[in-house]
Description:
By secondary structure, the protein is α+β, with helices and mostly antiparallel strands. The protein has 2 domains: 27-57, no CATH class; 60-162, Immunoglobulin-like. The chain is 29% helix and 34% strand. It has 4 helices and 8 strands; from the N terminus they run H-H-E-E-H-E-E-E-E-E-E-H. The protein has helices spanning 2-16, 27-38, 50-57, 150-162; strands at 40-41, 44-45, 61-67, 76-85, 89-97, 102-110, 113-122, 133-140. The longest helix has 15 residues, at 2-16.
Amino acid sequence: MHQLVDHYKQEMKHKTTGSIGASPPTSGMRAEFVRYIRALRNGQPYFLTAQEARWQQSSYAITAIELSQLLPLTGSISFSLNAKAQTACDLVIDLLDAHFDWQGGTRVSLNAGTQTISAAFPLVQGAQGRTACRWNIFLTPTGSKPPTGAGLVQRAAAHRARGSLR
């Protein structure tokens, strides 16, 4: 048995030290590989990212197509999201400042199934003193009243106390 294992090790050594001339990948090679993997085939991606795989397995899910990271000082903010729900529900999109004050948002009714939502909403006030904002995006039963104002601050404080919101 040991002779067989030793022979196998020697074969592996010869195979791995051949004159193929393998060199470590460069950033250009990595970028080309990623481009090839992400290329559409028949109009669809062939491989899924981890987020896309989770999306496929979820009954209710939201993924961003276009969601601003840099916000205008005034005016409106447009967005585009994919949403999936087993039953009709509402998609709530809120923009909150660092103190959880509402800066703008909208609510969109969804049908059961998967759909793309593109919409816009106006900022309720200028960016004076606003250094950081956060998106609050969720699905909720149709017509329900999500927490706003003090209720939202209380919910955020509860998340902070549990360590789930930073």
